[in-house]
Design goal:
transport; membrane; mainly alpha; 0% strand
Length: 494
Amino acid sequence: MSNKDLEPRHLDTLDRDLGRFANLEAAAVYVSRPLVAPSIGFVFIILAGLAAAMLLGQHGEMPIVVAAAVFGAYMALNIGANDVANNMGPAVGANALSMGGAIIIAAIFESAGALIAGADVVSTVAKGIVAPEALDTPAIFIWAMMAALLASALWVNLATWIGAPVSTTHAVVGGVMGAGMAGAGFGAVSWDQMFAIAASWVISPVMGGVVAAGFLWFIKSRIIYRDDKIAAARTWVPVLVGIMAGTFAAYLVMKGLKQLIAVSMGSALLLGLMIGLGCWLVMIPVTRRQSKGLENRNKSLKVLFGIPLVASAALLSFAHGANDVANAVGPLAAIVQTAQTGNFEGAVTIPLWVMLIGAFGISFGLSLFGPKLIRMVGSEITKLNPMRAYCVALSAAITVILASWLGLPVSSTHIAVGAIFGVGFFREWDAERRLKRARMTLPKTEEIPADERRRRKLVRRLHVLTIGAAWVVTVPAAALLSAILFLILRQIPV
């Protein structure tokens, strides 16, 4: 085509054609974007199965173990997508961490917790729900664990899709219970333990909410409502950081490091007290230096709580990785051992490659699917700032310690989300209390209409109902799904 052929009308046609191609390309990218994360997750699941096949070689039990590795990788992805939001959500919602920073920190500390101090797998495989000997043969035990693993993974996946943070531990417990009942009858289930778990549906969030609300009340009364907020912060922020450091030290020793360091409750609390006192003394000059030049207003206080909040999120992730990775690798390790040895009643050990599937699966799940739940937990239930998020994180650690001391089976998921609810409801109560006080001192204060007061609620009631329903349904739903899957799987000869 010569230059004289490129008349304006030809150029317009060419521009329109190029524009159509650009729009088509943009549309293709927009449509394909939601498929990227599931595709990467699918590749990870396939690689987990291939790794199991390569490690086993030509052993006869290979098909069973490969299938179990695939289910375990799928469960680990779902744990990362759902459970980790409880640790990182408050820090992200308070703007102390970006979403990218939260994902990086959580991935590192979750993996470190899983690999360095992975919890005893027996606590997840059986949980005292169904005794292995109640399942007659190794084949029945293998299919029961396979059904429990797949059912719990499917349920957690569904909960993540609808935006409900649920307890993966309860999902696995429900899966084991359902498969156990399908394989050995109702009598095989320890109903006392199940009633204790059902009670924790109420105990966990209530305890978390009360403790978080108590600390928020303390911060408001001792710092926020004071005339000289900065002077009050210089006194109390080191104390609060010391309490957090001591609490997390005891928490990590009791929950996250129990496989490396065997200590009693008293020793853990004494260690926490010593570390807390040390951090209190260190933070006194640090807080004075940080507070220099700060304006006497609430926004300035956020600076003093930012670093402790990030540290607490990292420590919670380490402890979570050490404990809840067993929800994915526990049944998988039991299947591997039973398939290879035929022994399903003794203690179960976790091979390194199984632990790696759990650790990397949680990290991939968090990176690929975690932001949705992190945003919901961090900002959509109630508005969080660094002070409120600090109360949530500290409440999670304290409540777990109290529950361990009392022997109560509680869920870290329920505690963290309950703490967020507690902070939000306390803010509502405190705002209402201050409004009533203003009316008493200033009789001419304008009355707020009922509709406007409902719009000003600080906790979204829809999330309360959605999350509460998901919590209640988790165990029975996972149990029913697991029972159905067990009845299907047991038809396959081992």
